[in-house]
Write a structure and sequence with these properties.
Helix content: 10-25%
Number of strands: 8
Number of helices: 3
Oligomer: single chain
Radius of gyration: 15 Å
Shape: globular
Amino acid sequence: MPKDCDKPDNTAVAAADMGAIWAMNKDRNLKRLLLALCERMEAKNLAFETRNPDHPGVIRVFHRHESHLGARIHTLGQEPGRYGIQLDFPDLADNRPELVSDSREDLDLEHAIEIIAIHLELFPRPEPTPS
């Protein structure tokens, strides 16, 4: 079942419930990336697959309302603190099969967040206004 960061029910991980992300059977660096996405972005449209656990070093994130628009993030073969990302472009599959996905390797946390946020149209959380 897809999990999204902002929907606090029994099928989703709430952004405020960071312990649920840490409890997932995933690589520590992947958890760190998910936490950072939920903390920094308006993540109401972010979801991630946990139904098919794949490998602990791989997770697929996607747009909650457009599950075909996603990215597979991995730490396999990466140095500690580095990420590989495969972006999915399913709308291009019929017209340009060679453009169905785009892969990036050896990304640091900041670049990985930026690429995922742009691809899934996530926006930064507004800065709190001083009281």
